[in-house]
Amino acid sequence: MKLFCKALPLMVLSAVVFCSAKTDSSLVYYAEGYNRNAVTYPGSPVPASKIQNPKADYLSNTYCTDIGSDGKFKKNAFKVTKLKYATQRDGSIWCTACADRIQCDYRVDYQVTCGNGLTYAGDFEWAINTTGLGKNSWKEVPLSKYDASTGKFLPKKACKKLNRVPTEEIFKMWDGRKVAFPEKKSGNKKLKRPVVFVPGHNSSFAAFGANPIGKIDPSDLNFIQGNVSGYDDGSLPDVIARDQNLDISPKKINQNGLYFFTAPYEKKNGKKVQALPHWKNNDQNHSISFALYKYLENILAKHFGKDWWKSDKNQVDLVAHSQGGLVIREMLRGLRANSKLYPTGSKNAANHIRRVVTVNTPHFGSELADDYKTIQKSYPAVAAFIKEIQEQKQAEDKEKKNYYKENLLLSANVSKDFKKFFKEGASSHAAALMLEELNMDNKVTKTIGESLFPTSFLTGLLGLTSDVKVRLTGSYVGDFKLRTTYKVLGGIKVKSETKKIDFLKPLRDTLWAWHVDGKHLATHSSFIQNLTKEGYPKLPNGKNVQMRPLYSSDMRGIRNFLMNQLAEGSSEFCKGGDVFKNSCFSVAAFINTLLYQSKGIKLNNFEGIQKWLDFYNNLMEEWLSSSDLLVTSYSQQFVDKKKKLGPKFQKEFLQPKTYNIYLSQVPNEYPFNFVPHGDVLDYGVVDSKDYNLHLNLVELEGAARKGLDIYCALDDSKCNLVKKKVNALKKEVPVGGLVFLDFDPILGGA
């Protein structure tokens, strides 16, 4: 699932200009990727084309680490390969202080060598441009003029304070950054013991990092059969293939021991949808669990031959994401409940299961799928959230038009000379305030500065605007109605503007669809209750299955991660342009600045925001502090003393693990254990003309893609592939605020 970017209410963002700082009277802009095919910032992955030593030995580290500390590259980690500059002036005299009539541009090509032994190429540009002048031709600086110890170089005449490669900015981009692996080398082996991947609800094997031959389409035979063309770097299939020297040639990749189960699809209302996991005897077209049993029979025959049942040593491992873990449990329950209908002993394919790894599986169900009335006492904030979405959805369906709840969300009177406000630039100041606030306590008055709340980029706040009244009404989850009243021309004329803001509608729709479609995964559903009564899963022969759950425990850190990305990506408001033509007013940045009376802005009669913030702060503390966005860590771990479930009660129950290897690779970037249920962001650029948003995104990979951690859970001997110790950073996680997410692409199914 993808992050619903229109719900990120910060500031005007640029794909090229990603940070700014004052230098004399001008602004310095930094940009990565002056070549259109170069990597982008902030934090987007480094492609394989940038590897300078692609045939290097494989080291299973998916992030760029060990390049230095305290913002400085260590020796041999950074190397300049080319320097260029271009300057242009307006007038006959050089301005050595970078005044308002000069443009200076600098470019550097460089190489970074990460802790995995791979060297990557990059390029970077920094500039001052206050006039909009065209660029002169680029001139190359001889590397003999570059001082690696200080970063300084010639020329020294114009913009002399910029005659230094800003390595600290480049360091920030690369420290902990996701990087490509070396070239894949096809081996000639296949696994002795096959691994079968079982995806989650409305998901597919792509969630594990396996690439389909064609499209992910239930009418595609290759997709239905689970045939793949390759694996994503760092995914479990990729890590196993590299570590075990598996054959990944087009002819043998689907015979090398890595097999991908695809759930059956059935027609409903003219559309093909995934069947439910509930066991149905001899019906693999309408039961995922029974289809999995037949798939295991086929895989054992494919891997070991038609006499697979003659040896107990012919075993198979299962890796299941989300609902996939419940499918396995339901399969075992169904086989045992109907044992007379199926083979016994070694002839039963399920008796050949050695180990099951469940990845963020809702063993006890997910409260987000419950009716809000059933969880009002246990999870009041979650219940309120579901209720709010339900009421909004019902109102829309009934009235067949935009519906606005009359909650007062925000009301404020503001006084400010906006022309001066825009020229001075509020966004970088607001971003700095937000970052400072991340370590503050939970008091509402202190969390407003770090909170994310719905916004619209307005037009018309131009010229000599003096007094502004902002009033926002609606449901806590949208629709929103924003009415802005302001005076212009020194107060001679009063203008007003009413604007619909409903960028959360896709979120509501997808979350509601999941809520309805995933009812069988609710904690109070009969499906979950039956599995809970069944207790610890047993094989058809009566033996306990060997199982290890992997779990995520705390998602509050995702807010910090995204806010840092956005703050890094912010640019100055209305930089270098006429305020009358380029108003780029944002409610969020506006309010964040106003609350601290920045640059003389005065705020009066500020109302309504506290209840709104309480609504989301409570949800954050109640849900994000103990879940992976969809499922509580309690449900994922499958441990309960009252139910007598856990390593203390079943010797086959292996101690649940969290994502320690992943965290140990990038401890400074990800100090908290937050691994979302599924992918949160996609790589690439998001544009929104409606909200004046232009943003480069970085992917925060979901649980199913944490290859090293899953490999360790699958095979204990592989836990030392990454030998770094887990960083035991125990800082208090800041609270407050919420990131609005599109739950459908985020979760990759449940």
What does this structure look like?
The protein has 18 helices and 26 strands. With 750 residues, the chain is an alpha+beta fold. Helix 6 packs across helix 14 (609-622) and helix 8 packs across helix 13. The longest helix has 20 residues, at 380-399. It is globular, with a radius of gyration of 28 Å. 46% of the residues are buried.
Structural class: alpha+beta
Mean pLDDT: 74
Q: Indicate the radius of gyration in whole angstroms.
A: 28 Å
SS field, number of helical segments: 18
Major β-sheet annotation? 6 strands, antiparallel
Count of individual beta strands = 26
> How big a fraction of the residues is strand?
15-25%
Q: What's the overall geometry?
A: globular
Read across the widest sheet, the strand sequence of neighbours is 1-2-7-6-5-8
Helix content: 10-25%
Rounded to the nearest angstrom, the distance between the terminal CA atoms is 11 Å
Stretches with pLDDT under 50, minimum 5 residues: 1-27, 91-100, 130-134, 417-466, 565-603, 683-695, 724-749
